[in-house]
Amino acid sequence: MDYVFGSQGELGLKEPGSWSSILDLSTCFLLSPESVEIMKIVREWTRASGLPFWNGKNYTGFFRYLVIREGKQTGQRLVMLVTAKPTSGPVRAVSPRQCSPELRAVGGPTALPPDLEKPFTKLVHHLDRHASSIVWGINPLVTDLSIAQEIIPLKGEPWIEEEVNGLRYKITPNAFFQTNTLMAEKLQDTVKNFCGDLTDKTLLDLYCGSGFFSLALAPGAKKTVGIELDSEAIACAKENAARNNITADYFVNAAEKFSAGGGSAFGGDWSIFNPDIVIIDPPRAGMHPKLIKTLLEVLPPRIVYVSCNYLRFLEEAKELLAHYNIRKATALDLFPHTPHVECVFQLERKP
Q1: CB atoms within 10 A of CB 338
Q2: Residue positions in the annotated binding site?
Q3: How far is CA 99 from each of CA 96, 104, 240, 269, 294, rounded to the nearest angstrom?
């Protein structure tokens, strides 16, 4: 879950239709009590720190986002505090022996700028029993994103693990992973069902993230390939495959750059993969128009489309249904207390 700081010290979510008005939350029904406590601790700590909050209108300030990731099956929690780049000095990794006694006591092998070491050490102490991993994320850009360009571990490893249907997944601070583990298991089962028998078939997983779907399906397929633009997610996918003893190939690339002809495996020739089944799980904005064009050129026998924005899927279906029929469809509530649902569609190529 990502929470944004307001310029007056608010911590919560943006009001609908607004990028500058922040709802200062006292609780959140989407999180565990432990994660709500983390949010309260961080709010009080930031307000007492004396450091400024980010102002999105003039791009000044320090505190920007709070990211909390929790493994429901493992009990592990990762906390990332996203800030602007500090102006008081560089951050550098050092050996545990070189960092301050206070930070060394809580496991932080990092040399912080002098004005940040004391408050950050206090934060780690406050969160110590609530989080297995605490990191400081630096976003020097003015873009309004909770993604960090630089990640500095303050406690533990800069990642956690989650278990879904018997598979162990590594989750890093920036990489996408399906929310709501218990419902994500049902989503994974649904995609398996919609893919059908994978014996002697090649599976192509577009927007594959950390391998959430492809790793669960790969043991039954002849060949499995995952494509994802986020290099951090692909690194996780490869590690997740290794730790679960699963064979799958993963490539860093934009899904729309894989065209129907010419190029290498990294450049985009789909004929190399010759997929029998394509899983598509795009962001809310949907597929890139070039990817739709490629799908209609390649015409894989079956497409399993996972959509967190069914209105966007309906727009894309206007083109896809010239060559495909929707054979199955279902909706899953991965986002309780919100109007959003996750939809899964099975599209079969017309004879």
Answers
A1: 9
A2: 178, 207, 228, 281
A3: 6, 6, 32, 50, 53
CB 165 within 8 Å of CB 178: no
Distance of CA 303 to the CA centre of its chain: 23
- Fill in the amino acid letter for 61: G
Return the higher-pLDDT residue of 212 and 56. Answer: 212
Token code pair at residue 296: 């209609």
Write the CB contacts of 33 (distance below 8 Å, at least 6 apart in sequence): none
Residues tagged active-site: 308
Structurally, the chain folds into a number of domains equal to: 2
Give me the amino acid identity at 168: R
Band of residue 257 on the pLDDT scale cut at 50, 70, 90: confident
State whether 275 and 181 are in the same domain: yes
C-alpha to C-alpha distance for 259 and 271, rounded to whole angstroms: 9
Pick the range with the lowest mean pLDDT from 6-10, 14-18, 126-130.
14-18
Within 13 A of 266's CA, how many CA atoms are on the CB side? 1
Which of 202, 92, 119, 210 minimizes the C-alpha distance to 159?
210
Choice between 224 and 102, residue whose per-residue pLDDT is larger:
224
Known binding-site positions for S-adenosyl-L-methionine: 178, 207, 228, 281
Is the whole-model pTM more than 0.85? Answer: yes
pLDDT at 302 over 50: yes
CB proximity list for 8: less than 8 A, separation 6 or greater:
53
Residue in 58, 59, 28 with CA at minimum distance from that of residue 43: 28
Place of tokens 């509530």: 333
266 and 217, same structural domain? Answer: yes
Q: Which among 88, 79, 90 has a CA at the least distance from the CA of 46?
A: 79
CATH number at residue 255: 3.40.50.150
Is residue 140 a contact partner of residue 115, using CB atoms and an 8 Å limit?
A: no
227 and 147 in one domain?
Answer: no
> Considering the domain boundaries, does residue 260 fall inside one?
yes
How many Cα neighbours within 13 Å face the side chain of 321?
10
Instruction: Assign 81 to helix, strand or coil.
Output: strand
Q: Is 160 helix (H, G, I), strand (E, B) or coil?
A: strand
